[in-house]
Each structure stands twice: as C-alpha cells, then as structure tokens.
Amino acid sequence: MANKFILIKPLITEKSESLSGKQNNYCFQVDKRANKLEIKKAIEDMYSVAVVSVHTLVVPGKAKSRNTKSGVLKGRKPSFKKAYVRIGHGEEIDFFGGN
Q: Each residue of 43-69: pLDDT tens digit?
C-alpha cells in the first residue's frame, strides 16, 4: 500500500489535543486496511519524527437521523479506523504551521 494513501487526516479533538500536550500522542484517521507497521512508516516519512508506538481501533458506524421540512431523513455514518501514535520525547508534530 502506498504511504500517501494510508493517512487520511489528523483528528483534532479535545481528547487528542490533551494527549498531544501531555504524552506526545497524536490521533489520525487511517485507511482500514493499513496495519501498525505501515502506519508507523507513513508517519515517520511524512512528519520526520521517530514513532515509539501505534495503537489502532475501528470506530463503528452509527445510525443518524435529522428532521427536515419534508420529514425525517435517516442515514448512516460510516465506520473508520483510528490510530493513536506516540512519538519520541522532545519531538512535536505541528498541524497548523504556527511559530
């Protein structure tokens, strides 16, 4: 699998921001077929950091509904794979390009 297609996007949430500040953990949405070794190599290549560990989980899809003028629309949010990546001490990934 090509490295550029493994990482879909970084997940910026309150939980992931608190983990990145305290424990050097970062959260990414990754391809469902990617394994931990492929994720580790993709992170190291893209961000030039040393990855210590990778933890993955699959977030299950959820049923969603919303009320509109024409009635209730029902649908589903798809499932996705999430990876928590711990990088080496003293290193940092800057998603926003700040100073």
A: 999 999 999 999 999 999 999 999 999
Nearest to 32 by CA among 57, 52, 54: 57
Domain positions in the chain are 3-87
Q: Which residues pair with 49 in a beta bridge?
A: none
| Residue 34, Cβ density class (10 Å: 0-12 exposed, 13-18 middle, ≥19 buried) | buried
* HSE of 57, CA atoms in CB hemisphere, 13 A: 6
Cβ neighbours of residue 15 under 8 Å, at least 6 residues apart?
A: 27
H or E stretch at 83: strand 80-87
> Using CA atoms in the order 33, 92, 23, 81, what is the torsion angle rounded to 10 degrees?
-10
Say if CB 26 and CB 84 are below 8 A apart.
Answer: yes
Record: fold of 3-87: Alpha-Beta Plaits (3.30.70)
